[in-house]
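Quick check before the chapter quiz. The format below is the same one you will see on the exam, so make sure you can read both the input and the output lines.
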Amino acid sequence: MELNHKSDFRKSCIKRLKFTSVTSKYYKDKIILKKLENFINKNKAQNILLYIPLGIEVDVQALINKLRKIKNKNVYVPYMEGDSFKIVKYRLPLQKKKFGIKEPNNSFFKADKIDLAIVPIVGVDAIGKRIGFGKGMYDRFFDRLSYKPTLVFTQLILCKSDKILSESYDIQADYIITN
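Here is the expected output.
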């Protein structure tokens, strides 16, 4: 695989997502959030890794707020550390960090095993492997876990390549939820 194919694909997906986010993002977010909520309930997930959304990602903030109010649900988000991240319990206040990503404060509390990880994507290749922003943080995080939670990729509009662009270490979804 040539790197320029993957980076060209990433750029074209980001361009499509930026356009989509301007036109009908609110409506698409609502549809996807309902699907995610149904998926979480159907699978009885209790320990859920979500993310604090960037502009072109599905805005899961309303879902985070809703899940936090449910007694047996624990919501975790990434906290960047080195070349990857660790999971921390979602709590306020959030602070803007590297790459413009908001995070809660660091926590030394050891998180439970997550049942379900909802991961934003820029695109997927022909075999359903994640194309992200190119930093590899999610790939390294899941590679270092000693267990495998259910992985759900989410995106406003599915941006899928008909070619295999991924490397062996790129993570693959169990499910993809889009509008």
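If your answer matched, good. The chain has a mean pLDDT of 84.
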